[in-house]
Design brief:
The protein has a single domain, classed as STAS domain (Transcription Regulator spoIIAA). The protein has a 4-stranded parallel sheet. Helix 3 links the parallel strand 3 and strand 4. The mean pLDDT is 93. The protein is an alpha/beta fold and 95 residues long. It contains 4 helices and 4 strands. The chain is globular.
Length: 95
């Protein structure tokens, strides 16, 4: 699933609904954030909740983040080591 633009309070419900609709049908999910320009704390909470929910169902949840603002956000918040982050969708799929 590819996310473009911003993930914030205005878009989080739509993104959460899309993930909820897709996740039960998949063994794992790769969320492509390489074209995401901004994410606020609501987006971070969604990432963590999705990871926990999918893990409890034996599903993999991976992120594709190719530097930029989202990589910096995950790094400064200390979440980078807690999420399965890769540099591209292809790299995430290979692992």
């Amino acid at each position: 699933m590819s996310i473009r633009g911003e993930v914030d309070l205005a878009t989080i419900d739509q993104l959460g609904a899309a993930i909820d609709a897709l996740a039960p049908k998949e063994f794992g999910l790769i969320l492509d954030l390489t074209s995401t320009d901004f994410m606020d704390s609501s987006g971070l909470r969604l990432l963590l909740a999705t990871k926990e929910g999918m893990a409890s169902n034996g599903q993999a949840f991976k992120l594709a983040v190719s530097g930029g603002p989202i990589a910096r956000l995950l790094d400064v918040t200390g979440l980078l080591p807690h999420l399965d982050v890769h540099g591209s969708v292809e790299e995430a799929a290979a692992h």
